[in-house]
Amino acid sequence: MNSNGDPSSPRGRARIPGSNGDQGPTADDSYQRRGPDGPAQQWQPTESGPGAGWSGGGDRPTTSGPGRATPGSSGRASVGSAGVGSASVGSASAGRARVGRASIPGSAPNPGGANDDAAPAGRRSAGRASVGSASVGSASVGGRATVGRAVVRPVSPAGPGTPDFGGPGTPGGRTGRRARPDDKVPPDAAKKAKRRKRLNWIIASFAVFIMLAGIGVVGFTYYSTNMVLPNEIAPPLVTTVYASDGKKELVKLGEQNRVFVTKEQIPDHVQKAVASAEDRNFYDHSGVDYKGIIRAAWNNLTGGGRQGASTITQQYARNAMENLKDDSYGRKVKEAIIASKLTEKYTKPEIMQHYLNVIYFGRGAYGIEAAAQTYFRVPTKDLTVAQAAVLAGLIKQPVPDSSTGHKGYDPAVNPEAAKDRWNYVLNGMQEKGWFPPGQARPTDAEYPKVQPPKEGNGLGNGVKTPVGNVVNYVYEEMAAMKLCQLGNDPANKLPNCVTEVKEGGYKIRTTIDAKMQAAAEAAAMRAKKNSVLADQPANLMAAMVAINPKNGQVQAYYGGDDGTGIDFAGKNTLGGVLTGGHPPGSSFKIYTLAAGLQAGKSLQSHWKTKNYKIPDTKITVVNAGRTASCGDWCSLEWSTVESYNVPFYHLTKEIGADKVVDMAKAAGITTMWTTSDNPPAPMDLTKKKGSELSPAPFWDMVAYGQYPVTVLDHANGVATLANRGKYNKAHFVISVEKQNRDTGKWDKVGGEQLKPQQRIEQPVADEVTSALTKIPSNSGLGLSGSRPSAGKTGTWEYADTAFNADAWMVGYTPQLATAVWVGSKDPKKPMIKDKNGRSVGGAGLPGEIWQQFMNNALKGAEVLRFAPATGIGDPNSGNGIPTTPPNLPGGDGQTQNPNCPIPDPNNIFCNMIPGGGSPGPTTQPGDPNDDNNRGGRGGGLTPTQTPRTRQ
User: Fold this and answer.
1) Alpha-carbon separation of residue 747 from 353, 507, 750 (angstroms)
2) Which of 121, 225, 645, 699 has the highest CB neighbour number within 10 Å of its CB?
């Protein structure tokens, strides 16, 4: 043809818009085409939107919308998006997979594949057959399987009037013609068309396969997902440690502050407030809100705020199960599947219960009960509608988000946003008719008062306080109850105590009396304004333990200001070494005295008191620099009151040091440390007899307290004497309750098991008490109201100095036994001096702490008296040598010594047994020059012995 219609002519060749790199017709392009029976006609492209047509007359091809081919274009046969649609969790149905219509320009509609009939004649445009994105939705593996678009390249251009072109007379052409018998199809084009058709079918078949595979994957995910039921999920629950009244909270322990509550304990308006805030269709859908998903998707696609469309059930699944924490499509599918399964198994109130026990409300509060206590100091059952709306509003974002800059909905942090969120919740409740019958919507003026945040968010409260030391004993006693183990022994199937307590959800009622604990801290804690140590040197440290003798309950415990630091009243493991003991000095003589009485000695027996050099040694036993007024004829009682060392050494030598160790063990001493080892080695008295520990490592010096013991053990020993020799093990736990995760009830799983034992003969204990009653009053440490009390002081000197390193006061009434120690917490300053530079003696600061505490702790308590002594033992025993005693002032003349037939009021020797001895010289307690000091100076070291320096 010529330029008016010749295909060989560059200008006459029909240009196919959009084909072979052409960008499509423009407004200036013109094309010629010969009609079926007439001359070539001119056609002008028009631009009228999608599927632009052509202007001109006759049987022109037109496009009427997207997907319509333009004249001569290479048509695209496409298999539409074959995908798994919304896979409904619970019914796991695959969405429709549609094979789109493959349209060839000028062809008849051909659903399911490209029109690939061979044209009888003319040139034809081979359309591209493509399979659109055939995708499987989010399967459990999280990926999206996609078949890419397969393309068959065009064959030779179609001629006018062919079916492909859509010319006049063709079945699919709007103005095309039918193919004529004489039309010729090039052989290559026919082969390529067949090949294309075959490929299209292959691609379409593969798309269907992918679709069906997607259905199978979702179905398999549904049925294979191992759903952990709520009663099998054990979110960590907080453990609360209470005082003896079961109400005063001492310590709260746990990784998460959570207390379990049942649906019956959650008011309906609380549940409805949460539904209003998080899922208003909660009671209508089957676990997955498809309307919400579509709404959220549209909102996200159109540029609105990001929405997740997760229901309460889905949120529960995500928060309760660790494997649903990521943010993948696979997780969302599994989350939806689990939500559907949960809905099939549980009622809406049950799902709401589980949800409200795992969700986070901020400030460390997990679950509605912890949130109610944290924000309003009330239990869940007492929450008002207004309070419930505040808590429900927190769930969306309880804490600030640094990535978005949003401050969250905590009223204390972001009050305006919290108020808006509150109104949103209430509006939803109003729309749904969810307010309690007869109750109107709260007004803005009724916005509830929220408690301010606390340091630590209520979790771990009390640990870094004096009562924090109690927690370690709780672990030990729970292990003894077989509720857990202290270590991680694989052979022991019990959980580790620390982990179990922090995650198990326990209520532990301890023996600590809140009133007495406050009194102990007020007396011994430096930070307290009226404490005895408040204005004393900073290195001084006190420790104190008070025990009820009748049952062994530890009613007050002070081992330091911080429960996570060193416990000066108990045992510590530092660098793998068990430490914690302090040399008790003369306060240990109470056990030596009891051992002597048990061996048949009497308080009226007499003993030498002059300095004594131990044979075959370089050691000389002295009375801490004092000369006994009774010479070598001192009664055992007077030696106790005056705290002479030499008589107690002789007594121990005579009965055996092993008897003293056994008596200390019987009273309650569990551990004593050696002084011959570096570091000192702990000896477990509960596992060994005195004969196995004496004379080595504990020899006769045990008589007056060379070997360290803990304050707790010493208090237990004193309590046994106060209970007339009946031992009760010191303990801290009254009861242990564990919350049942199904019912929410508290089941008792452990508690104290009292096993009193008469370890010391009653007459022996009574006789010891009768001697010790003379010490507090004579030392200025008597209790108010003339309350009878018994006690003993003790010190241990530092090296060969005139200053002490340890000072003690131990004492008791019939209903309370207390041990007090004062030492140095600074290894660089081991000597203990008061603010005036004087050495601290037992009757000094320790005695003052003991006196202050006992008066406050027993205020209002019944005044009880001790049982009278019976005068047991042999008064003629002992190694004393009768001499003419010096005439010294003193003596109360109340009781005559049977060895003095003629009473002499000026003879202290005749009046010291057993009526209570001489008051001695008047000196200030703790005076380093006071050789008497009413037992406070007794103990100490022999001049030639090297002391144990505390590290």
Assistant:
1) 20, 10, 9
2) 645
